[in-house]
Amino acid sequence: MFMITKKKKKSVLEVYAYGHHIPMSADKARRVIDQIRGRSYEETLMILELMCYRACYQIFKLVYSAASNASYNMSSKETNLIISKAEVNTSTSTNKLKPRARGRSYPVKKSTCHISIVMKDISFDDEYRKVDSLKSIKNLRWKKKHTTLGYHNIYSSGGIWDKK
């Protein structure tokens, strides 16, 4: 006798957007990707619009594509999306020849990169539940850990110079 059980299917919580052979250095793209990793979708769009790097436009298009994939495939709202994973990998480099003096040529290497962006819907995940802001403010207890040593503290009432 055999018992047949069905495996539970995991619901899709993440959406992907890949950009292959983007004509820029991987280091220049990483500089921008490090700024947006772990942020919300709306905050990411604002950051990418205000940064003045050439890589921002390509990454902006990928983030926008991943968000449209999420709204179409998972029917999720854009306010619930965060960037859970963002990677930049080096790709092939194209060799071009630049003409030089006396009929010679000089090789120029143009590097390319692959960019992958994974977005996650936080409304399905228990890890990112929103906490009521008033309750969280009431539970905080502010303690004064560091005291500043100003001019009036040094020279009055047993300061540094009163050691005789």
TrEMBL record:
Pfam families: Ribosomal_L22. It comes from the Eukaryota. GO terms for cellular component: chloroplast; large ribosomal subunit. SUPFAM superfamilies: Ribosomal protein L22. It is found in: Plastid, Chloroplast. Keywords: Chloroplast, Plastid, Ribonucleoprotein, Ribosomal protein, RNA-binding, rRNA-binding. GO terms for molecular function: rRNA binding; structural constituent of ribosome. GO terms for biological process: translation. Part of the 50S ribosomal subunit. This protein binds specifically to 23S rRNA. NCBIfam families: rplV_bact. Belongs to the universal ribosomal protein uL22 family. This is Large ribosomal subunit protein uL22c. The gene is rpl22.
